[in-house]
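Anyone opening a protein record will find just a pair of labelled lines. A complete record is shown below as an example:
=====
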Amino acid sequence: MPLSTNVTRPFSGSRLLLKFQRLHISSGVSSFTRGFAFHQGSRLPPGFSLSSRGSVFHRGVAISPRSFVFRTFSSSGFDFRSLHEVVSPNDYTKYYIPKPGEVLDFLNRHYQFPRKTNNDKVLKIKCPKCRPKKSNFFSIEINVNDGTYRCNECMTKGTWKDYMQLITKTSTFQVINSTQMGIGCPSYLSSPEEIEQYSNELQNYPKVIEKFENNHGITLTTLLAYKVGIATYCNIKSNSSIEISRQDAKELCITFPRMAPCFDDQDQDNILRYKVARIKAYSVEDYEFITFDPPSVHSGLFGYHLVPLECETIILTGNEYDAMTVYQETQIPATCLPNNGYQLPIEILPLLERFSKIYIWLNDDVQGQDAAEKFAQKLGIDRCLIVNTRCNNFDGPINASQALTMGKNLNEILSLAKPLQHEQILNFDNLKEAVYREVINPGQVRGISSKDLPALTQILKGHRPGELTIFTGPTGSGKTTILSQLSLDYCKSGVSTLWGSFEIPNIRLAKKMLTQFAGEDLSKNPGEFMNWAQKFQQLPMYFLKFFGSTEVSTVIDAMNHAIYAFDVQHIIIDNLQFMISEQGKFTDRWELQDRTISAFRRFATDKNVHITMVVHPKKDSRELLDMSSIFGSAKISQEADNVIILQKIESEDGDERYLHIKKNRFDGTLGAIPIEFIPNSLKIRHLRKKKFQEVNHLFADKQIFEKYSSNTKNWRSCKPFTRTIPVS
């Protein structure tokens, strides 16, 4: 069914409301409603016309209501919350095209048993909406390339995402963030009136303006156009004195507003207005301090108010400085990613739906170009062009802001933008650029470093996408606590994280994380809870709502959604046994576990995400665990890129724990890290250098395991091996 356009009169007077409603015929429910208000008889925006039947035309062509994102109307006027509530979380861009093999893999995983047709690109499957009878079997024809489908019986049709939602039904709603779990609140830290005045304060700080001009080449005219402002925000630091008040912790910040279109029912002068939907604030002095207001609401885009209604092109950059630089030099509307990292939330996609051409201009390094390709897939590869700032000059600038300071012509760089190449077709130039990016950025190839456990980085070299890590250890030894800390550590570095806790409730897990994040027991200082909760809300941390036994296909569907909607890069499954418990017969246990491991291994590779999976060990009489101690067949350790064992040894001084790296596919470095637990913060830390070297000698050879596992009193007296790893 086509999109319907209705003319109604919800208000008194001569005001008309054009209501656009998109119906999901495949699901039988409407997704959301958007409106565009005009005065009857008043002048329409340039290029727009209204027919007697209520149709809207732009330059003589009927326009799609999905080209705009508007709030719902109410007689009470503008409501700030409607900026982010108007978009359903189920709404995907119509430009999305599934990757090769994605359609067939999904159909097989959900037991749809597709049948071949005379056309190699089309398969026949059962219609989930038709009543089950012989004449309706295999009535849907689905295109394996783009996922579009049509039922020949009930005439249901739609996009690939529509079909996925028909089959999975509720899996979309199984991913939640910290705000939905009750941590913090989605409200503004400042009043809307104060936020609107931030931009007026900028000219009172000439030193800030001078810094923009001297360091980045951004003029005052550009700053005013983007409504850059000045404000103060609270900065409570970890382990700070509890006597520090919110007023004493105020920081002077530069504010970058996220703008979104809105309509005010009481406004009789202007047709379309923009409101500040969210603020991103950088501290003027402390460059590490970045905050958002409100903390967890993803609404609006930086500089979106500068985009004319008739404009069909926009440039998407990585940060505000690049966006202002590009707009200043090219006069093409430019915006940036809404969060502090390579994330493009699903709530933002409707704002980009109106554009037929999107330039993606991120850092010209390994992480930036990987993110650019991912966003091109998400937004639709047919309308996206990727900008390489270096332009094959490997000594060139890495981003737009640097290019301006080096005197480069940004229009020339933009003209060399290229579309995303087909995944299965590469030429030498593609490989040459990608390989050289890895050569000149060895740190990014190694992955994200751990700030809490630098010794772990020395062994594993970093946290890399596309890998599967198996984490095991005795029951009650602290596996979840350590993984909670590590995931939080990487998340603070910008790694979007999804937690699947199948053993302990999400509330308990979030409480543990919040304590680790604050670095103190908040139950002893509850007055600081909201301060830390507001900071925690800003992290790209998400949680699966599943608990206990859950079908693997259901979990993978939710993971797929999290990757598309939240650009998740790290997934933790805690743990394998709880997730697949009570599934299959006792004799099928090993086969089920092997299939599960294979599915997650394939998922990590195909989606280029890091999966960390907790697997319980076997009941073993030996105190020190080995690769063979992992519960299940050898396939688990074979499929894994990394195997980490949490060793727990009883000694005269009490329990001693070690993170023992038994497998490292990246470069083969192995070793063990002695750790100690800090009860007040629920965190671990590695011990001094001497003990670090001592334990690496001990763990260097399997024979020492066998010789000293039965007598822990003698393990320190063994002759040390010469093999060690570098330590700090």
Notes: The chain is about 30% helix and 20% strand. Residues 4-68 form one domain.
